[in-house]
């Protein structure tokens, strides 16, 4: 992607974020770096029961404050804010305990169509490249739900619904 196209894409992502109430959401101001260790940190935090809070902290630090999240020191500071044991985190990252898991996850994402970030995977089957608006994402979530929870009005005890309402089998 060329510089002009990259900037336009980035501005679009920033506008989508602002429309969803994610402000500030900085992209162009951010230092760029290798995220391998960052993903290992996220895997470690997830193993410690801190998946959601770790992702939130990474996003807030990088996109909200435009601070780097790439070095061991950056990540240890985040570990402190998350209440993770600093020495355990240091060892996990220094020994690359989660490197293979991160590589396996990346390879799986590529098989599902990921070519960059962001890439959203829904139900292990639906890949969404880029940053879709919330309506597009909601439509995809509904499709995934409908595909895994088909409505079957003729089946056994399932309710049968029509224009006049629903009939539910009563056993008695």
Keywords:
single chain, 172 residues, mainly alpha, Glutaredoxin, two-stranded antiparallel ribbon, 8% strand
Topology overview:
Blueprint: H1 3-19, H2 36-47, H3 51-64, H4 72-82, H5 86-94, H6 99-111, E1 119-122, E2 126-129, H7 134-148, E3 160-162, E4 165-167
Helix pairs in contact: 2-3, 3-4, 4-5
In words, what does this structure look like?
- The chain has about 170 residues and is mainly alpha-helical.
- The protein has one domain: Glutaredoxin (3-Layer(aba) Sandwich).
- It has a two-stranded antiparallel ribbon with strand order 1-2. The protein has a two-stranded antiparallel ribbon with strand order 3-4.
- Strand 1 and strand 2 form a beta hairpin.
- The chain is globular, with a radius of gyration of 21 Å.
- It starts with a helix and ends in a 5-residue tail after the last strand.
- The model has no long low-confidence stretch (mean pLDDT about 85).
Instruction: Specify the helix fraction band.
Output: 40-55%
CATH class reads Alpha Beta
Instruction: List segments where confidence is low: pLDDT < 50 over at least 5 consecutive residues.
Output: none
Number of strands: 4
Major sheet characteristics: 2 strands, antiparallel
Beta-strand portion reads: 5-15%
Compact description:
With 172 residues, this protein is mainly alpha-helical.
């Amino acid at each position: 992607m060329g510089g002009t196209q990259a900037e336009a894409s980035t501005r679009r992502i920033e506008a989508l974020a602002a429309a969803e109430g994610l402000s500030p959401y900085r992209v162009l101001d951010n230092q760029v770096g290798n995220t391998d260790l960052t993903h290992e940190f996220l895997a470690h935090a997830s193993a410690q029961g801190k998946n959601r809070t770790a992702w939130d902290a990474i996003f807030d630090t990088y996109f909200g404050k435009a601070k780097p999240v790439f070095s061991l020191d950056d990540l240890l500071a985040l570990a402190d804010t998350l209440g993770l044991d600093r020495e355990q985190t240091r060892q996990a990252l220094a020994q690359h305990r989660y490197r293979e898991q991160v590589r396996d996850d990346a390879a799986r994402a590529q098989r599902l169509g990921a070519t960059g970030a962001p890439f959203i995977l829904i139900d292990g089957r639906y890949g969404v490249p880029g940053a879709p608006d919330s309506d597009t994402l909601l439509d995809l979530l509904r499709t995934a739900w409908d595909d895994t929870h088909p409505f079957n009005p003729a089946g056994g005890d399932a309710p049968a619904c029509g224009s006049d309402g629903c009939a539910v089998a009563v056993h008695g």
